């Protein structure tokens, strides 16, 4: 069912291609489709010149709902946000306030889907096995949910007064 949902999400993501153009432009990435012939593609080692992996945009408001549904607040604090059910004992996990301005979209997606790709060392971040204490959500989230959750995390940026904002 998750795969079917992911395929539907990819279709929906394609409809957002125009919006992705503007997001990529704002982040300084190549914009628009890269056009290349099969011969050029093979000569360049299988990657088109200027190609860079980018995720389609998500919906920060829907991502906040995913954050709540997945109970991310049990380990991650977001300054200025309150989440229903957020009265559980806080487990150690990175403070996410302002995180959106600190990391690229793809890094945040990888941290959710493959938390052992980069292991943050320190009390509460690394388990006795030396691996990240962050659970692997690769089988629990659809692609759309991942895109939305990452969009929510990217929306967590500092305001001019030093406070943090989210959507």
Identify the strand order in the major beta sheet: 1-2
Instruction: Give the tally of β-strands.
Output: 2
Low-confidence region ranges: 1-26
CATH fold-type name of the domain at 56-165: Cytochrome Bc1 Complex, Chain D, domain 2
Determine the N-to-C terminus distance: 29 Å
Rg, nearest Å: 18 Å
The percentage of residues in β strands lies in: under 5%
- Determine the structural class based on helices, strands and strand pairing: mainly alpha
Q: How would you characterize the overall build of this protein?
A:
This protein has helices at residues 2-15, 17-26, 38-43, 60-69, 105-113, 143-155; strands spanning 157-158, 164-165. It is mainly α and 167 residues long. A two-stranded antiparallel sheet has the order 1-2.
Protein traits:
single chain; 167 residues; mainly alpha; Cytochrome Bc1 Complex, Chain D, domain 2; 6 helices; 2 strands; disordered N terminus
Could you give a short description of this structure?
It contains six helices and two strands, in the order H-H-H-H-H-H-E-E.
Helix-strand layout with pairing:
Blueprint: H1 2-15, H2 17-26, H3 38-43, H4 60-69, H5 105-113, H6 143-155, E1 157-158, E2 164-165
Helix pairs in contact: 4-6, 5-6
